[in-house]
Amino acid sequence: MKQFIHLSALGINDAVESVYAKSKLEGEKNITNNFPLATILRPSVVYSVDDNFTTNFMSLLKNLPIFPLYYSGNTKFTPIHCSDLTDIIFHIISKNINSNILECIGPEVITLKEIIKRLLELIDKKRILIPFPLPIAKFSAKFFQLFPNPLLTEDQLRLLKYDNISSGKYKTNFDIGVPSTRLFYSEVKKYSFMWKEGGQFSTEKYNTK
Q1: Which residues contact 198 (CB under 8 A, 6 or more apart)?
Q2: pLDDT tens digits for 112-142?
Q3: Distance separating alpha carbons of residues 172 and 176, to the nearest angstrom
Q4: Residue in 108, 87, 109 with CA at minimum distance from that of residue 177
Q5: Do the beta carbons of residue 127 and residue 63 sit within 8 Å?
Q6: Tally: H helices and E strands in the chain
Q7: Is 45 within 8 Å of 84 (Cβ atoms)?
Q8: Residues in contact with 26: Cβ distance below 8 Å, sequence separation at least 6, in sequence order
């Protein structure tokens, strides 16, 4: 085997309390032990029309009059569009890059609160955003994780303590000449109409006002 590309996650070195982060680090260790020349990609939040990030948030924001902000919504993200991530993977394959940890980030640093506000604007909704104190946040996580597709689990709450941005310890996709170009608002706008009143008929194409 000439190349092995392993998809991990950004920010896992810092999130030592998280089971998810520990499992990702263990996975990376197993890969490097068996495939020393493997390329490990650590993307920030990956989004697109079929993701479990923007789509879940927009579904909740459409139906909930009040929305909780954990850690006051100050956690920072560098969301990357799936097409930008595939461009990075193609570049690695075509240039035969290996034996690296590469952090894959989008072109913007956005806080969770800013993400929620942008999604609300895109689906034409106004919601009350309430910062949750940590004890209440922990209690709500225990409650939410009882459901099949929870808004939040206790482990995800632990992850939210840490920013999901470039650590500065490793190269990023920008460093290898593959900058992310797709902006969060512009890309989500392409499919956010599905969560607006009227669905596809809410788009400018069908707007008769």
Answers
A1: 206
A2: 999 999 999 999 999 999 999 989 999 988 8
A3: 7
A4: 87
A5: no
A6: 7, 10
A7: no
A8: none
Residue 68, strand partner residues: 130
Domains of the chain: 5-200 (3.40.50.720)
Q: Could you read off the pLDDT of 58-82 as tens digits, one per residue?
A: 998 999 999 999 999 999 999 999 9
Other CB atoms within a 10 A radius of the CB of residue 206 amount to 11
Q: Which two tokens stand for residue 197?
A: 């009143």
pTM of the predicted model as reported, rounded to 2 decimal places: 0.89
CB 124 within 8 A of CB 209: no
Strand partners, 164: 77
Measured between alpha carbons, how far is 187 from 191 in angstroms, rounded to an integer? 8
